[in-house]
Specification:
Largest sheet of chain D: 2 strands, antiparallel
Helix content of chain D: over 70%
Strand content of chain D: under 5%
Low-confidence stretches of chain D: none
Strand order of the largest sheet of chain D: 1-2
Mean pLDDT of chain D: 81
Strand order of the largest sheet of chain B: 1-2
Number of strands of chain D: 6
Shape of chain D: globular
Number of domains of chain B: 1
Order of helices and strands of chain B: HHEEHHHHHHHHHHHHHHHHHH
Strand content of chain B: under 5%
Oligomer: heterotetramer
Low-confidence stretches of chain B: none
Distance between the termini of chain B: 46 Å
Amino acid sequence: MTSNQIMFAIFSGIIVLFSILTVTTKRILRAAVYLLFVLISTAGLYFMLNYQFLAAVQITLYAGGIVVLIIFSILLTSHISEKFEATEMKKSIFSAIAAISGAILTILTILQYPFVASQAPAKEVNMDLIGKSLLSYNVDGYVLPFEVISILLLAAMIAAIVIAKKQNAK
Amino acid sequence: MDILTLLIVIPVLTVIGILFCKDNKQVRVVSAIGMSIQLIQSIIVVLMYFAERKAGNTSEMVFTQTYMWFSSLNIKYAIGIDGISAVMILLTGIIIFTGVFASWNVKDLSKEFFISLILLATGVFGFFISLDMFTMFLFYEVAVIPMYLLIGIWGSGPKEYSAMKLTLMLMGGSALLLVGLLGIYFNSNPAGGELTWNILEIAKVKIPIEAQRLFFPLTFVGFGVLGALFPFHTWSPDGHASAPTAVSMLHAGVLMKLGGYGCFRIAMFLMPEAANEMGWIFIILTATSVVYGAFGAVVQKDLKYINAYSSVSHCGLVLFAVLMMNKTAMDGAIMQMISHGLMTALFFALIGMIYGRTHTRIITQMGGLMKIMPFLSVCYVIAGLASLGLPGLSGFVAEMTIFVGSFQHVDTFHRIVTIIACSSIVITAVYILRVVGILLLGPVKNDEFLKLKDAEWHEKLTTVVLICAIAGIGLAPLWLSDTISTSLAPIIDKISSASIF
Amino acid sequence: MINSGIPLQYFLVLAAIMFFVGVYGFITRKNLITILMSIELILNSVNINFVAFNKYLYPDKLQGHFFTLFVIAVAACEAAVAIAIIINIFRRFNNIDVENVDEMKY
Amino acid sequence: MIDFGYTIWIPLIPILMFLFIGLTGHKYKPVISGYLGTLGLLTSAALSYYTAYQYFFNVGKVAGVYEKIIGFNVTWLRFTDTLHIDLGTLLDPISVMMLVVITTISLMVHIYSLGYMKGEKGFARFYAVLSLFSFSMLGLVLATNIFQMYIFWELVGVSSYLLISFYYEKPSAVAAGKKAFIVTRFADLGFLIGILMLSFITGTFDFKTLTDPNGAAIMQGGSAAFLGLSVMTWALLLIFIGGAGKSAMFPLHIWLPDAMEGPTPVSALIHAATMVVAGVYLVARLFTIFALSAPVALEIVGYVGGITSLFAAVIACTQNDIKRVLAFSTMSQIGYMMLALGVSGYGGEEGLGYMASMFHLFTHAMFKALLFLGAGAIIHAVHSNNMTDMGGLRKYLPWTNITFLIACLTIAGVPPLSGFWSKDEILVAAFEHNKFLFAIEFLVAGLTAFYMFRLYFNVFWGKDRHYHHAPHEAPPVMLFPLVFLAIASIFSGFIPFTSLVTSDGEAFHVGTEWIVAIPSVLIGLIGIAIAWIFYKKETAIPDKLASSFKLLYKGSLNKFYIDEIYLFVTKKIIFALISKPIAWFDRHVIDGFMNSIAFVTNFASEKIKGMQSGQLQQYAYVFVSGVVILAFVFIYLLKF
């Protein structure tokens, strides 16, 4: 076992474990925290794959931004001590069957498919390249999606404000 | 712009004109002017058609134009007319013209009413000039949809129910029809190569018999629903009973003809082999329509129901004759369409006028109208006589052509069915005379009615125009018959090549 | 490959498991926020796939990388809007059970 | 050779009058429309006489044979290359004779109506429709082809309908008009189908081709086809049904008595002299083909005629409405004509019956019109149709009395009045061909004399009734037609029909068969004598007789319940057992089926909509499971 494999094993272990905990725990705040672990481990995976920028974004945006957002809204809407009632047995069993069979199916398929790893030299992903690609309109340039996503972000912010704004009592 | 496209443009312009109108009066005037122009235009089209033929143009269709409007499916705006469509256009022109005058008194939402009415007519005109099946289908739908609004909003009685029923049944027919048309389209070039929607081009090839067997019934029934083919006719009594006057006129007068015309122009013309094989089924159905509709009319009490059943009977005769697949019978079928269109429009116009005065359509509640409103009554009698096939009026010409034509069929089965269909003329006489006897003759039953007035100028205009047309065809049928049968020649050539008899 | 003896399939299997866990959560949880979290799980698993494919199959390109980047941005938007909606729902029903939100039934 | 093209004006003038009066009649005084109509018909009559003169005495005869001459012909509607409806005029002995009959009677009726209908509401309408009728009838007899005949046949039916329902506010008149139209329409259906069959066999509508004795048409359709009769026989029988309907042959006669609801002049014109003989004319028109290629059909025609004449004569003996007596008498006389055709052969002396039939048609038109117009005068005076309201009228109505008596003597076959001659020819023809039919006719001759004189004595003799006001003689304008027709009745018997109207156009000679003539005159006289005894003074004998033959009397009085049978068939079977169920079936089964499609759709969607619970997670669950299942199916089962 190389160190890489060990790292992978640890990260994937954390991911699987905490994913399951996220969706099964009875306390909502804990779920958020478990989610945080999952996201951070994912960032770890990105690091392993040498995508440092992506990993950084993952941590700041996901782990930092979204999870905080979620925790805020939890605090706004729930009591911390509140426990969920247990999911109905029938519902959870059927859901589990669907999910597990789906997972098995997918995994089987993945395992049967002979992926051939490319031998092309890996590109060095540095900030320079990322910045240029994002603003380039040549082949492999992402200026259009970049602009689109910025507008989307703006729209989402405005939308969030408009939706969440208290309506005037009528 | 060519003369045929103008037939669509004028109604559209009229509709736009109506949009700018301020009150009832303006709407009426604009509609009347627009439809008068349309009538004149229809007459001009017919005259131009004659001139073109006289000038020696012997091609199947004249005034043809083609513009591509959806190239990936090769859908074209292809137009052109032959003698048959020319006379159908004239019929439509007359009926929409009289229809506008028959709805002179529409008060509520008159703007919307006239817009829908004229839009409907636009669809009909478009249908008759189209040579491209898809464009034809498009116009067909344009004609059918306003019907829903017209009945549902301006109708009487259980109008929502009737409108829903009529539209749904016609849409059901459309669905079958669309499948049939697509089937024809995808088989339009069995040798490989570009597929086409153009009727004339498809007519040159022989659609494989297996495809015909599948798509002929679909197309025939699809159009047949609109042509009140038994047992898909039940929208007719309800729909007509609820529809406002002009809509009944236009619907029975022209829209039902789209069914017959489509059956003939697409189902029979493009798939003669299947028509030959399966014709007998539809012949039985249509013969049933003819007799059954007539019997159904005998016991009805509501004027519009009587007329609706009578339409079932008469339109059944149209499809019946189309299925006979010989020139005389088909000639008769087209004439019957025109004749029935005119007389049923007259009927519905008169019923509307009577209803507008007495506020009832139940014949037993009325009586002796001849004394109160002689003009309308005499017109009603004339319409009745036309319907029961009095010589000198259009009904006789059409029916006799059908009967003689059908009886010339070499097959005994066809001749026997013809005899059965013939018997409808007696039953027709029974129900027409029953209505005339109860409604118009005899003593006045309700003294209230004595105060009612006879026809006003616009009502007189409506009835006189229709009666003139009916009598015109009845007295001098030769030009009409010859025009139609000349245009039928290429169609008959194609059909008879498939004949197994 | 460079990546030191971890086959692509591992990442894919991991992502698949994570995905279906997210699906399970989506179906079973009642609380809208936890449902949102399940969605984050699902998105995350997809991201892993993208990145892994990028790295293993097309190391000379960056599509997967950027796609993930954009997905993260979209996820952020989505979370923001979703939470705004959740807060509105909370104002209305005083809880955030998904079962309350059934206006769209027949 | 003279151009007969002008003959088209004979029917055209009345139709122009119809249009003119019909469209403008309300604008001027009604009496003007009467004069206009009469004037129009006078012109037609003059043209007809001129034509008759030209045809019979100048140009018609070529080498001793009266040819069929087409005066005018135009194609009206083309079906196929060989089948087309032409409108035109065909002149041959019978059509020219009919022209004379129709225009004469019609003119008389027009003149008569000026007095009879005076002051009636709808005077203009009356004259308009009368013109329409004259047009149709003239067009019918002049028809060059069988379809033209059918066209005018229908027009005749409609004008008859309009005239019967002339008093449209009277429900019985409306009902009678309807009945007449529908019954004849039913018969016309037979006619139409017959035409279709005939044209199918022979490929032509044209009378000239059809009736050419050497032509191809005659030879067609000879083989037995159905029930042992040939196609041609069936076609001709169906055509005969049309004729039987118009001519009120048993059992299609029921409309004729009711048709007496119309104004009396109309009865005289339509239901006595012209329209009702259209059936006879039709058979005569097609006589060649009847005689040469379907003798069985001709025999049936003869028997139908015989039965009708007996049947109607029996009924006529008991009726009390004078117009109905005359109506049944008309039926009986037309039966005679049909019978005469039925016992005739083609060509030469064999064609005696044909000649006799036409002869009788001619004389009958004269005396029956006279009878009706006389009856009109009586009704005009008494304001009742019922014989029991009359009696002793000879003092009040001297002119009517005399003319009526002449007519009665004529119909009873008293020599030398015209009825004697024509009836005698018929009896001779029957005697030579069919003794059974001869016996019937012999009996009917006696019955005819009896019932006519029963009528005559009852009305003009007997006891005076209490009239509201003294009956007064009709005005001169009504008397003139009576006198004219009386003269015609007396002398028309001397017209040499044997040389003018024969089956093959050739003249032949026939002497009076005294062995038939003397007994027939005798039985006529016996009939008159019995009537004299019974009814000259009121006696109890008729009542006694009636009670001793109760069944027969009641049956006859009620017209042997034929009307009731028809009523039963139409009301109980057609209406109750066919139409009502069809209407019900349509509303409930067919429409119910359509509605149930809608209902099933609705019901299904009502059930399915439960799935649309609005529960997000449920959707998700279904979605995921669906994807998984589909993926499984596609990957592992279908192996894409």
